[in-house]
Design brief:
Layout (H helix, E strand, L loop, with lengths): L2 H16 L4 H8 L3 H9 L6 H11 L3 H13 L1
Length: about 80
């Protein structure tokens, strides 16, 4: 498994929890499946740009902010 997928997953989980979303509520709001959110958070899947944009909109973060969160995880 690639480190950047795990870093994305950790950043996604942190942002989701900070906003009080469950995987199910995040998935519904972003038009995704709950199991897909789980796989992303585990680092088992690599998101498309469309998926990242949808998640950013739902989580009310910019692409730059999510990229910074991923970089922070990679450097941790």
């Amino acid at each position: 498994m690639k480190n950047h997928n795990k870093a994305f997953g950790k950043a996604l989980r942190s942002l989701r929890r900070a906003r009080g979303y469950t995987q199910e509520t995040l998935a519904f709001a972003a038009g995704l499946d709950r199991t897909y959110i789980s796989l992303l958070e585990l680092g088992s899947r690599s998101p498309t740009l469309d998926t990242i944009v949808a998640l950013c909109g739902t989580l009310d973060v910019t692409l730059s902010e999510i990229a910074a969160a991923i970089e922070a995880e990679l450097n941790a």
